[in-house]
Structures are given as C-alpha cells and as structure tokens.
Protein: 6-phosphogluconolactonase
Amino acid sequence: MQKLVEVLADKQALIAKSLALVLEKITTSLDQQDYFTIALSGGSTPKPLYEALSSQPLDWSKIHVFWGDERYVSPDHPDSNQRMARLAWLDRIPIPAANIHPMPTDEPDPHLAAQKYDDHLRQWFGVNSPDFPVFDLILLGMGDDGHTASLFPHTAALTVSDRCITVGEKDGNPRLTFTVPLINQARCVIFIAAGESKRPALHQIFSAYGDSFSYPSRLIHPPAGELYWLLDAAAGSSFV
Ligand SMILES: O=C(O)[C@H](O)[C@@H](O)[C@H](O)[C@H](O)COP(=O)(O)O
Structure:
C-alpha cells in the first residue's frame, strides 16, 4: 500500500487538490480501460468537489458512479447522499442514467436493501463471493468521531468480512455502507477531511497504536492500492 498525507492551506486549496487528484485517476485509468468506477462519500465536505466535477469535460459515458454509504431515507430527502450528489453534480452533466448506481432505500428492511446492492455490485463487476469488487476510486470522509462511510465506532458493521454491503447505524438510524473489506480492495482510496473538529480523531488515526474500533478510519488501508489523506490546515497542520 502506498499512503500519502497532504495538508493544504485551506478548504479551497483542499478541494482544488482533490479535484486534480480525482481527474488524474480518471484520465490515467481511462487511458488503460474502457470505464472508471467511483464510489462517493456523503457529508458536507465533498459537495464543492462534486460541484467542480460538474464542469469538467470528461467522457461521462465511461464513468460509473456508486455510493459508499447512504442514509436510509428517500432519494428526495434532505439527508440523502444521492440527492446531494445529484444536485451538486450528476444532474448537471450528460451522464447516462445507467451509469448512476444509487443505493436502494425503498425496502421496508434495510438489510434487504443492503443485500440488493451487494448483489448489484457483484453482478455488475462480475465478481462472486468470497472475492470483492475492485473499485478504481473510493472517496471517503471522516467524522469527528473517526468514522468513515457509515462505519461507526463500536458497531457490528466494523466486523462484517463476508459481504460488500452492510447496515450501519448512527443514533439508532440505519444506514447502508460499504464494508471494510470492500473498501480495502480499491485501487485508490481518497479521504478528504477539513476543519479543526477533525484533529482529535486524526491524531488517533495517524498514531502508531490506537483502537480501530474506536476510530474506524484506522481500518482503511488498501493493501494493493493507494491511500491518500487530503486535509486542510485546520484539520491536519500538525501531521506534516
Ligand atoms: O453519509 C455520510 O455522512 C458520510 O459518508 C460520512 O462518512 C461523512 O463522510 C463524514 O461524516 C464526514 O462528514 P463531513 O464531510 O460533513 O464532515
């Protein structure tokens, strides 16, 4: 695994660097293959990145967009990660509808929805259990508590090792999430984190010793892939 931590002067520089890196990954991959697979993070940090991507002259017919986690709400709910990405980016570009792969949130039981998306990923990538699909790029954020995707501290989702998708839980509310083994199969994982509030968790995550179940982002280290941590100075100035 190649790991790179870069601290940018401010949020604007962080988004500019994130955009440059995402574009680099897309263009170099499409030089070698016919399509590019990206899984999106939710939360607030990546929204300006998605807005910036909407003005990029890319061959969207070759790009397939998935989500790394989703709140278990309807696609038009204000908390929906799908809604955020569509408004900021996907509704603004000529991407084929078939290239957008939202997590289903219409099943009465979130576990059924998790299985549906798991099945969809395995079918689309042509990968059967026990192997895992290999994403070209997975974008991740990190919560103040060190969670990533919807892999929250001390939850059962952290230990799921035989599935691509499981049900996470925050404050009693279900969420669909990529599992740790799926994320760690990726060719490239990019964490994007900003703000002073991230510092305590980052100290725990970057320390040589720490509890991964208290700080789940510690669990993300793709053995055959690249791992980038892109931080603004408010979050990461003491790490480099
Ligand atoms: O659905 C979500 O909320 C995200 O996937 C989650 O993991 C997010 O990335 C972090 O909570 C950071 O959120 P911010 O970017 O808002 O700090």
In short: The beta strands are 2-8, 36-40, 63-67, 69-71, 100-101, 137-140, 165-170, 173-178, 188-193, 226-232.
